[in-house]
Specification:
The chain is mostly helical. The protein has one domain. The protein contains 6 helices and no strands.
Length: about 110
């Protein structure tokens, strides 16, 4: 069962990474770590929705299965962590333009 939990966390971190594909390069440039290698993040932007939607559905399925098997007491914190990571990815995706504007203002 715990292997399944780690797979869920991997999916949540993947969703967070893909959601941050446009904010991360800007942050790295502000830190002085710019360069041509940042172009790899533009490739991730295309796959953002294809990773984020299934990750969200898998987290919801995890909650459903845990509730159905009466295992929420033991998995509550694991599922809450996965939900928080996936929610953070959604926030980044939905507010990407505003986040980029906030980072560009000091420049």
């Amino acid at each position: 069962m715990f292997k399944t939990i780690w797979v869920g966390y991997a999916g949540a971190f993947a969703a967070l990474g893909v959601g941050a594909c446009c904010v991360t390069p800007l942050t790295l440039m502000l830190l002085g770590l710019g360069g041509g290698w940042l172009a790899i993040f533009s490739t991730l932007a295309v796959a953002r929705d294809y990773v984020l939607v299934p990750a969200t559905l898998l987290v919801l399925a995890g909650w459903f299965v845990a509730r159905r098997r009466h295992a929420i007491a033991g998995l509550k914190w694991w599922l809450t962590g996965s939900t928080a990571l996936t929610a953070a990815a959604w926030v980044i995706v939905l507010y990407e333009a505003r986040i980029n504007d906030d980072f560009m203002t000091p420049m």
